Each structure stands twice: as C-alpha cells, then as structure tokens.
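Lab channel / #folding
Pinned by the channel admin:
"Please post every new chain as: sequence first, then the structure tokens as a reply. Keep commentary short and put observations after the output so the thread stays searchable."

First post following the new format, from NK:
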Amino acid sequence: MAVGVFDSGLGGLTVLAALQARLPSVPFVYLGDNAHAPYGVRDADDIFALTCAGVERLWQEGCDLVILACNTASAAALKRMQETWVPKDKRVLGVFVPLIEALTERQWGDSTAPREVAVKHVALFATPATVASRAFQRELAFRAIGVDVEAQPCGGVVDAIEAGDEILAEALVKSHVEALLRRMPKPEAAILGCTHYPLLEPVFQAALGPDVRLFSQPRLVAEATADYLLRRPGMLGTGTASRYLTTGSPESVSAHATQFLRRGVRFEAA
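Reply from TO:
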C-alpha cells in the first residue's frame, strides 16, 4: 500500500514529512534524483526523461500512485506524462493543484468561469525552469482574474541546499527577495514554488516581512493526497515498506538531509 514521492533532490523531503504526519499508517517510498539535481536549469525534454525514469523506479517499489514533489517536474513534465506516458492503472500527481486551490479558494474540478479572488498581488519564487514554463500563471488564469503575479527565478538556491551550504542558501534567498521587491514592493502573498524552499521558509518570511502571507506546499499537498486516497483507496500500491532512495551518494545525501531536517535520515542507492 505504499505511495511514491519523487523529487530532483532533497526538497521533496518537506512534502514527505507532511505526508507522513497526515497519513501515518501509509508507507512512503522517497526517491531523490540527486545525481542529476538541480532540474531547474535543464530543458523540458531532459526533465521529462529524468522524471519518467524516477517514476518508473517507484513503480518497481509497488507505488501505483506517485507524487511529483518537485515544482520543476510538475511544470515541465507532468502534463506530457499524463497525456502520453502514464498507463491507466497508475497515477502521477503534481504539487501545483493544491497550491492553486488554496490561492483561489476553489476546487480543481470547479469548471465555472474565472472570477476575482481576494489576493491581487502575488510574488512567485521558483526555479528558472518553473518560471520559464509559466505553468503557475497559466493554471491560475483558468480560475482567477485580476491577479498580478511577479515571478522571481531563484538561481543557485537549490544548488546551495543540495550542497549543504546553509549560509549561501540564506544569502541567495535574501538577494532574490530584494530583487522581486524592487519590481513588486507590496505583495500580499508569496508562493514558494519549489519544495526545497520550505527548508528556508523563515528566511523568506523575514525578508518579505510579517504582512506577506506565505503559501508553502507541504501541508497543502498532504491534505490533497489524503483526500485523493479517501476517494480512490484502490490507488494504494502493493509496496509495504518505507524507504529513502537516491541516485546520488547515499552517505552524502543522508548527511545533507539530516542537516537540513534536523533529524536522522538514511538513504539507500536507487
């Protein structure tokens, strides 16, 4: 009955932690493609190929349902995967949907015309590939009108997190926030559009100020997954054991994950 969680590296561990807290009886198999991180600087075809390979590996672990805990993969690969590649007995879900639902306060299946929402000025922090895809703006436009989105590509942040360099990661976040605030001085809300970024959520909040509401994905994704499994219990796969897998060095990835999560995490080679 395992569920798979895939990310380009360490960021998806923030989503995994929320999933484990929300669904303590469900085993989760996590796969970080650390050998090829970061995805945010790769082209769409490369991201598609790497994401498909990772999802196939999780299917081998008995995970019929896989959560792409990676905004870059969700933005650049998920639609193509769902339309051309995923078999009928499997499901691959991304992390955009719960975020859009929370921001617009309407369910994904709501097919009524776009309408005005409470938040008018939104700052989006994401990887260069996610920003370039404009996937967030596209999905938002289907459901809301009158929302001004200012996107900031946060180059280097994921690399610093993956390398375990907290000082550099924090400095880069402050620099990127300052750059966005020069273009949008008073955002009402900010989207942390990369699952690595919640590891630095206090840094984002401090740089933005206390009046900016942060939308961070782990809790939203966990609630959406719990609701999905309640409605589709048959998507729980045959896997029975929780595991942490990586395409990188298990020793190095374990050390960096433990550093950022402040608890022991032991990875195995994928």
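NK: The two ends are 20 Å apart (CA to CA).
TO: also worth noting, The CA atoms of residues 55 and 66 lie 7 Å apart.
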